[in-house]
Amino acid sequence: MGRIILPHRSYSFEQVKAKAWQEIDPYYTSCLTFCEAWLSGEDTFFQQTSGSTGSPKTIEIKRSQMIASALATYEFFKIKKSPKILVCIHTGMIGGKMMLVRGMLWDADIYITPPSSRPFESEWLQSPFDFVAMVPFQVASGIEWDTDLKWLRQIDTLIIGGAASSPELISKIKNQNIKAYQTYGMTETVSHVAVANLQQDSQVYHTLPSVKIGINGAQCLWIEAPMALAHRLQTHDVVELLNGDSFRWLGRADFVINSGGIKIHPELLEQKIDEPIKKTYGNILYFLAGIRDEKLGQKLVLCLETSEDKKKEYILRKELEAMLEKYLVPREIYTTKTFALTDSGKINRQQTLDLCGLS
């Protein structure tokens, strides 16, 4: 029988189910309360969506969905019996909750630590793990801190979610031979339904067992899966469908910019301009957007989280003009000292455009 392991003590699953625990820290209390409800057979849970592309909403999630997701992940990655897993992402989000569910269904030793940029700084976590989930910021910070990658390299399977990994981070993961996968999923599918192996050159997502996919007339992905409550979940993600179980992600349909009849996928273009932006400004937040324009319908603009002077903006523009086709160079560059973020840490594009005076 597995255990839940905290910095100062551990509990068997039987102890958690019997409520034979008492924690002062509210974060650990919330984790154990959820685990107690799960182990007691609770059938329905409620979860707030991230709100990265619209208003956050609370949705109902069934136990059967979470079981289907955890078992599909177990099968896809061929997880060993009674694994050792680390929960270092926030358990208030679906990704963190599903780490707890996986651990309980896999009869695992579940190490729990509050989210931080560098979880392996804690000595009690400096050991090999079979399965870990992190967000890109944690992986990037971990590579900076763990310069010889002693701990990251000892993770048998690392999944990265919550946001897309930057080209720079993917390059570091490849070069350092970290066994990592980028996930694709959402709250409505109770975490991921597809993963891309970051050691491979092409960013191709492969679906978990029992997941069926297709596209609609607008080339947006639909999903049929036991972990999704809807029979067919229609997404707003534009994809290149490769075959019945794999696809390449192109961007959000609601982010597509139509500039003078040319359709631009800003999220793909953001990957191309990542290097010159970091070269000029360092590790800042940024995104591309389309705003109304009388002649073009929409014009492409770049928003940067910075208070730097115009000199760097001029340098960046010259870099972009040298590397991009003319229609892909942002017409304007806007800056603001602080971006608006969602509760899960993603950029809230609309609110940030408001901050830049572009609403």
From TrEMBL:
Residues 38-201 form the AMP-dependent synthetase/ligase domain. The keyword Transit peptide does not apply. Gene3D superfamilies: 3.30.300.30, N-terminal domain of ligase-like (3.40.50.12780). PROSITE patterns: AMP_BINDING. SUPFAM superfamilies: Acetyl-CoA synthetase-like. This is AMP-binding protein. PANTHER family: ACYL-COA SYNTHETASE (PTHR43201), MEDIUM-CHAIN ACYL-COA LIGASE ACSF2, MITOCHONDRIAL (PTHR43201:SF5). It holds the Pfam family AMP-binding. Belongs to the ATP-dependent AMP-binding enzyme family. Coiled coil: none annotated. Keywords: Ligase. It comes from the Bacteria.
